[in-house]
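REQUEST ID: PR-0412
SUBMITTED BY: lab tech R.K.
PRIORITY: routine
TASK: structure prediction, single protein chain
INPUT:
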Amino acid sequence: MPSIEIFQPYKQAFLEKDLETFEQVMALVSDQTFKENKHRSVVKFSLWYEDKESAFFCKRHFKPENKDKWKDLLAFKWSPSDGKQELDNIKLVTELGIPTMTPVAWGEEEGSSFNRKSFLVTESLGELERLEDYLVRKYGKELNAQERKEKQALIQKVAEMAKKFHGANLCHRDFYCGHFLVKEQKNDLPILYLIDLQRVRKYCYLRRRWKTKDLAALNFTAFPEAISKTDRLRFFYTYLNVMKLTRSHKRWINQILTRTQKMDRHTSKKRQKYLNS
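STATUS: complete
OUTPUT:
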């Protein structure tokens, strides 16, 4: 029998919307669909909550992609359903003090994690901007002294988040700038939310190759219109917590750059294939 858990104080709102069973949530219909394929769908819907209409996202997994689950199995790790995996990862990231999504409800059906349907509902963070777009909009121009100072502080903040994340032996595996959401604040640095945590994995020891993959993804989506080579070096000084780069550091940075170039070539081929189709 499928299981479902709705967290307080959201339970009453779900009951009033007739979303109290696993089947009802999996059949939820919304006119705001952000992703839909044979594996999963992501929709946005509203509930009347705390005397106002509030927005939520529901990520439903219909046919799990099993590549990651096979990797977990080969590493002798138990792999939960996709919805439960992301819920657990949200808790890990929250415990680190990194802002992320607020879980509202989750559910899964019985069976093997290789074919188990599941879902996760999170509360909307509001109309926030992806970091890659924010960087170009704010800093993809000639900057004055104050704007340069703000950009340097933001780069340092991203580097510190990445350092803390990897320091807890976590790897994201989709560590793109687009998975950082920016919430601007008056007279202060913006708040950065790390999202899309479904593929995050925690290890007893995080090998360098996983860090390389994460940092290459971040580097790849930090567009040169806004982020210079000096900015990228400044990121690494903060991430590595050093005043001077050693030969070992430089070799690692070159590995990250090589991985970035590989991602660029792969993306270009996919884009060209799409244009020719």
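NOTES: The mean pLDDT is 90.
REVIEWED BY: pending
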